[in-house]
Each structure stands twice: as structure tokens, then as C-alpha cells.
């Protein structure tokens, strides 16, 4: 069984770490795939899904650029105050349908931002589809952001202050 080419080295390293497989992650993708086949880790750890196309990598570079371009159009519409006459959109329906289309690709940050702007302005509730890995990264970033906000802290007790 051959590992599908849509799985990057980063994907394979995540799988190695998740299943605690004894493979050096500093190796190249080619060598990692070679070790998977030589040691028959695919059947041993039931990793048959690696033979199919990676469901998280459904966009080619051309398709991703098209999605980002649509998100940038919505973001520029927001910057000009949702004035349709100064944008490439002809109606509110076009804006909302574009937002619905790009919401399927919520792993891209500009898509999430564009959908947020459409939700706020048109009072909609369009939800971006975000993979579990990106969701975890966003939660970690949010936690770091909330912990770095300065706050007032009171300390009770007796303190000795000396002046020289």
C-alpha cells in the first residue's frame, strides 16, 4: 500500500507523534514513507487511511488563491463601508453567497475574517468549517492572548518597607 502524495511531512510527523511510532521525525518525507513501508506500520497501527487522499488537503494552490481572492474582495468591501458601488459585487445576495461558499474553507484566516464581517454587517450566522488542528491552534492563541492582558492584582499580608 502506498501513502498518498497529499500527505505532507508535517501530516506524517503528526501521525507519528499521535500513535507514538518509533520513527525519527527529522528524516525527510521520502525516508519516513520508506520506513512506513519497510516496517509495515500501516497495517500494524491500522493506518489504511493514509492510502486515500488527505481530506484536509482538498485545495490545490490555484483553488486556494481563488478562495483567498474572494475573501479579499469581501474584506475590501468592509473597508469601504459596504458600499457596493465601489466594489466588484453587484448585490447583497452576491456578497452573502460568496461568504457562504468560502465558509467551507475556514482554515484560511482571511476567510474567517471575511465571514465575520459579513455576519456582523448583514446580521447573519454563517459558520466557518474549521479543522480540528486549526481549532486547537486558535484556542491556544486565544488562551495566550487572554493571559497576556494586564490586570490589577491585590496582595494581602504584612510587608516590611525600609528606606535607606
Radius of gyration (Å) = 24 Å
Poorly predicted runs: none
Can you summarize the main beta sheet? none
Number of helices: 7
The shape, in one word, is flat
Structural class: mainly alpha
Summarize the structure.
This protein has 164 residues and is mostly helical.
Descriptive notes:
The protein has 164 residues and is mainly alpha-helical. The protein folds into 2 domains: 9-51, no CATH class; 61-145, no CATH class. 52% of the residues lie in helices and 0% in strands. It has 7 helices and no strands. The longest helix is centred in the middle third of the chain and has 19 residues, at 61-79. The model has no long low-confidence stretch (mean pLDDT 89).
Overview features:
single chain; 164 residues; mainly alpha
List the helices and strands and how they pair.
Elements: H1 9-19, H2 29-38, H3 41-44, H4 61-79, H5 92-102, H6 109-122, H7 132-147
Helix pairs in contact: 4-5, 4-6, 5-6
Amino acid at each position: 500500500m502506498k501513502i498518498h502524495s497529499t500527505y505532507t511531512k508535517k501530516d506524517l510527523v503528526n501521525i507519528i507523534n499521535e500513535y507514538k511510532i518509533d520513527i525519527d521525525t527529522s528524516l525527510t518525507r521520502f525516508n519516513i514513507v520508506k520506513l512506513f513501508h519497510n516496517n509495515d506500520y500501516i497495517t500494524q497501527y491500522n493506518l489504511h487511511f493514509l492510502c486515500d487522499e488527505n481530506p484536509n488537503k482538498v485545495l490545490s494552490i490555484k483553488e486556494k488563491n481563488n478562495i483567498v481572492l474572494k475573501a479579499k474582495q469581501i474584506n475590501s468591501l468592509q473597508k469601504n463601508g459596504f458600499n457596493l458601488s465601489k466594489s466588484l459585487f453587484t448585490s447583497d445576495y452576491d456578497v452573502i453567497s460568496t461568504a457562504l461558499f468560502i465558509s467551507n474553507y475556514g482554515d484560511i484566516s482571511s476567510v474567517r475574517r471575511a465571514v465575520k464581517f459579513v455576519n456582523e454587517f448583514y446580521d447573519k450566522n454563517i459558520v466557518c468549517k474549521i479543522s480540528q488542528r486549526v481549532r486547537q491552534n486558535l484556542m491556544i492563541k486565544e488562551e495566550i492572548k487572554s493571559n497576556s492582558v494586564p490586570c490589577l492584582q491585590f496582595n494581602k499580608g504584612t510587608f516590611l518597607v525600609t528606606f535607606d
